[in-house]
Amino acid sequence: MTLLTIPGMVDPHVHLRGLDWSHKATFASETAAALAGGYWAVLDMPNTPPPTIDRPALARKLAALGEEAVCDWGVYFGASQADNTAEFAAVSGTVCGLKIYNNATTGTLLVEDQALRERIYAAWPAGRVIAVHAEGETIPRILELVRRTGKHTHFCHVSTAEEIGYLRAARAEGLPISIGVTPHHLYLTEDDLPRLGGFGWMKPELKTRMDVEALWAAVADGLVDVIESDHAPHTVAEKTAPQPAFGVPGLETTLPLLGLAVHEGRLSEARLVELVALNPQRIFGLHPPEGTYTRVDLADSFVIIPANLRTAPGWSPFAGMRVYGRVREVWIRGRLVFDGTQVLAEPGSGRNLFGGEGAAG
Ligand code: DOR
Ligand code: ZN
User: What is the pTM of this model?
Assistant: First the structure.
């Protein structure tokens, strides 16, 4: 048995829930799921109720994570359609970045006015990432702002051949961008929707086989920087309702799905380590503390069984798939926090990696 050691896995795109959505999942349950998935750190999105768009909501989320988290973490501040740019200077030092929802999804955040997007780009301090939900034709609109301001922009969950085309050109132009792709957009297509029903609903939606091929090509050739889960737990009742909620859990399935790609010869081990650890660290300016790494057995295959997952709602769109890569150990700051079976870290032992001067070190 050869174990691969990965230094400090980071998922820069998760929706942990908690706060007024604790019926879906909690910071305690989902950071435990993160450890079981091999992660050192997760970065939480702002489309919670209450949305993370002002200082009281941010303070409430930081306090709850501080009490409950078992892995390290950061949170995004959210751009609001009501123009909350006046808050930016006060909050940017305690968050991992700014998230702008430019297309509709779960929650209430949506910025569709290009003039407001311009004010947001102007106001957000350079040096902390701007992450965007931007689909299709919205991507060139955002690229205009990147070109004008030079502010690093992470394009979340890119899902189509068209979007890959825009971003390939932007990379060639030398714009400061990074690109994330999710496992569900790599492994599922719209053809899976009849089988999955509401469990296959997410934003961006599942696409065609041709789009999936373009994503794999971009993963293989280095255009894609990060595999991000977009972990978004909803209850079974919410996913089987007449109008299902958008989003799928992914923290515990991302690494073994990439292990499957290694097994199939679509991905090298070195590239896997870049996609789940080195590149998200670089983009967000993170340095894993000494004694922070994950050991995974990429040769160990298993079938994804929802009952074995820690994520609170207990379902997966990948149920029944045979994958490769069992997490054996997760170490943070020299402490064994997951031993392959049990989470050993106590609530509150996780740290905010963006908590102030030097905290990201
Ligand atoms: O499918 C999604 N679910 N896409 C998003 O952008 C948000 C997420 C959620 O919070 O449920
Ligand atoms: Zn998301």
Answer: 0.97
